[in-house]
Amino acid sequence: MLLANRSLRVALPFVVAVLALGVGWALSVGLSGYVVYLAISMVTATIAILGLGIVTGSAGIIALCQLTFGAIGAWIVSWLNVSHAPGGFIVWLVAGGIGAGIAGVIIGLPALRLRGVNLAVVTLGFAAAFDVLLVQTQFPGQADGAQIERPAMFSSDRQFFFFAIIVLVICALGVFLLQRSRIGSSWKAVAFSERGTAAVGQSVSAAKLSAFAVSAALGGISGGLLAGQVGIPYASSFTPIQSLALYILAIMSGAYLIDMAIFGGILWVLVPELLKRWGVPQDWGFVVFGVLGIQALTSGSNLGEAIRAGIRKRAKRRKAEAVDPGSVTTSVLDVFAVPEAEEPIPADAPPVLEVRGLGVQFGALKALDDVSLRVRPRSIMGLIGPNGAGKSTFVDAVSGFLPQHTGAVELDGTDISRLSPVSRARRGLRRTFQQDRVPPQLTVEAYVRFVARRALDRDELADALAFLGCPPPEEQLANVDVGTRRLIEVAAAVLSGPRVLILDEPAAGLSHEEHLQFGQRLTRIPSRFDTAIVIIEHDLDLVRTVCTELTVLDFGRVLAQGEAGAVLEDPAVVAAYMGDAEVTQ
Ligand SMILES: Nc1ncnc2c1ncn2[C@@H]1O[C@H](COP(=O)(O)OP(=O)(O)OP(=O)(O)O)[C@@H](O)[C@H]1O
C-alpha cells in the first residue's frame, strides 16, 4: 500500500504532463487562428513567469530584468538563424536558454552582496542598459527582414502553439522536480535565512546563483520562443517596463506555484486584450498590474498561497474531526520503547570538540575572553550564564559566523578555526539558532532531507520525527507552531549525523509539559544518534536533568566548569545568577 502510494506520487507529475500535452494538442486543433496566436504569447509569458517564480518567489531575490534574459534568448536564436547554424530552431532555443542562464549568473553575482532596493536598482539598470543597446544595434537579421525559421514539423501557428506547449510542459516538469530537490529547498531556505542556510552546510552563493541561472534560462527560452512566434523580434517586446509588469504579476500570483504561473501568463495576455476590445489603450494594462501588485505587497501574501491556505485549513479541520485522540499518545509512548545501541565511551577518549582560548571583541567590549572547553563524545554539556554572558557569541564563533575570533576550535582533533560556517557544518559541527530559522515554505520532510544532507529512508525519517515528538513528514512547516518548529530543527540536525550539535535555547516556545518531554528525549539523543550535544538553556531544571557537564559564562569569561551538580552548587555560580529573573532554580 505504502509502495503503491509512493509510486503514485512519483508518477503523478508525469501523468499530469502527458494530460497537459493532450489538452494542448486539442486546443491547437480547436482554437480559432487569432486565439491560437494569443495562446502562444500566453505560453511564452508563462515560461518567463515560471522563471521569476524561482528567483523571486522561491529564493526571495528581487530581479527586475526577466525580459532582458528573454531578449538575450531571442537575440541568440536570431543570430543562429541568420548564421544558418546547424541543429535548427530547437537547438537554437536550447542555446538561447543556456546563453541567458550564463547571463543570469553574471547578473546574479552582485546579488550575493546586495539586497532589496539596491538589487532592484542593479537589475532594472541592467534591463534599461540592455534595452538601449538593443534599440541601437537591433536583433540580428532585423534590418534585412530575415524571418526565423520554425521547426519543419511546427511551421504553422497551430503547430507552433503545440510546440510551445511541449516546451512549457518540459519547463514546468523541470521546475517541479527542481523545486522538490535539494536545490529547490536551498532556494526556499536562503529566502528565509541566509545564516540558517549556511549553518546546515549549504552554500548561500550556490543557492542564489543557481536560482538566478535557472530563472534566466527560462527567460531565455521564453524569448527564443517569442522570436519563433513573431519571426522577427523587436526590442519593444522586451522593455524594462514590461519586465517590471511581469515581476508584479509573478509576486501577485505566487509564480513559484506552477498553476499560478500559468494564471499569470493568462492575465499577461488577457488584460491587454480585454482593454483593446473595450477601446481602452493597452498601456492601461500596466496600471492594472500595478494595482494588483500593490494589493499583493500590502496584504503580504499572494493569490496562490491564499488559495492553498484555505484548502489546507479545510482539510485540517476535516482531519481533526476524524482523528481518535487516544492514538496520538500511544505513538509518543511507543517511541520510548525503541532500543538504543549503548557503547560505553572510555573516560580518556579524546574530546570531539575542543575550544582553546576563544576570544571575541565587539569594539571596546570583550564579549568572550579566553574561553576554553572540551566536549566528550556522546556527552551533553550545558553552557549557561546570565543574560549577556556571551553564550550566543560563543556559538557564533565556534560555528564560524564570527571569523574574527581569536583562539582555536578543534573538531575531532582537526583545527577548524579558519573554516567557513558551511565547511564546519559539513564536517559535522551543527548548530541551531535562538530565533526561528526553519523555512515555512517547505514540508517537514523536505526540510529534514535538506538539513540532513544525506540519503534518508522514510522509516528512519519518520522514526526520528516521532522520537522528538514532531509532526508527520508531509506536514507543511507553515502550519506548525514555532515551538514545534524548533523540535523539527533539532530532529533534522540530528539526522545529519553531526559529531557535535550545539542547541541555542531549543526549548524556547514549548509549554512546560513539552519542555519536560523534550528534556527526556534529549538525554537519549547522544547514545541513539552517536552525537555530542552542547546546549544553551536558561531553565536550570532542564539543565540539571539533561546535562552531565556544565560550563558557566559570566561577562564573557568561564566562571565555573565541571560536573553539572557540583557546578550548580558553586557559590560563585549562585552569586552570578542572583537576581537574574529568567532563571528558575
Ligand atoms: N554584534 C554585536 N555587536 C556588539 N555587541 C554585541 C554583538 N553581539 C553581542 N554583543 C554583546 O556581547 C555580549 C554577549 O552577548 P550574547 O548575545 O552572546 O550573550 P548571551 O549570553 O547569549 O545572552 P542571552 O542569554 O540574552 O542570549 C552582550 O553584552 C551583547 O550586548
Automatic annotation (TrEMBL):
<feature type="transmembrane region" description="Helical">
    <location>
        <begin position="211"/>
        <end position="232"/>
    </location>
</feature>
<feature type="transmembrane region" description="Helical">
    <location>
        <begin position="159"/>
        <end position="178"/>
    </location>
</feature>
<keyword id="KW-0813">Transport</keyword>
<keyword id="KW-0547">Nucleotide-binding</keyword>
<feature type="domain" description="ABC transporter">
    <location>
        <begin position="353"/>
        <end position="580"/>
    </location>
</feature>
<dbReference type="InterPro" id="IPR027417">
    <property type="entry name" value="P-loop_NTPase"/>
</dbReference>
<feature type="transmembrane region" description="Helical">
    <location>
        <begin position="119"/>
        <end position="139"/>
    </location>
</feature>
<feature type="transmembrane region" description="Helical">
    <location>
        <begin position="88"/>
        <end position="112"/>
    </location>
</feature>
<keyword id="KW-0067">ATP-binding</keyword>
<dbReference type="Pfam" id="PF02653">
    <property type="entry name" value="BPD_transp_2"/>
</dbReference>
<feature type="transmembrane region" description="Helical">
    <location>
        <begin position="244"/>
        <end position="271"/>
    </location>
</feature>
<dbReference type="InterPro" id="IPR001851">
    <property type="entry name" value="ABC_transp_permease"/>
</dbReference>
<keyword id="KW-0812">Transmembrane</keyword>
<dbReference type="Pfam" id="PF00005">
    <property type="entry name" value="ABC_tran"/>
</dbReference>
<dbReference type="InterPro" id="IPR043428">
    <property type="entry name" value="LivM-like"/>
</dbReference>
<dbReference type="InterPro" id="IPR003439">
    <property type="entry name" value="ABC_transporter-like_ATP-bd"/>
</dbReference>
<feature type="transmembrane region" description="Helical">
    <location>
        <begin position="61"/>
        <end position="82"/>
    </location>
</feature>
<feature type="transmembrane region" description="Helical">
    <location>
        <begin position="36"/>
        <end position="54"/>
    </location>
</feature>
<keyword id="KW-1003">Cell membrane</keyword>
<dbReference type="InterPro" id="IPR051120">
    <property type="entry name" value="ABC_AA/LPS_Transport"/>
</dbReference>
<protein>
    <recommendedName>
        <fullName>ABC transporter domain-containing protein</fullName>
    </recommendedName>
</protein>
<keyword id="KW-0472">Membrane</keyword>
<dbReference type="InterPro" id="IPR003593">
    <property type="entry name" value="AAA+_ATPase"/>
</dbReference>
<keyword id="KW-1133">Transmembrane helix</keyword>
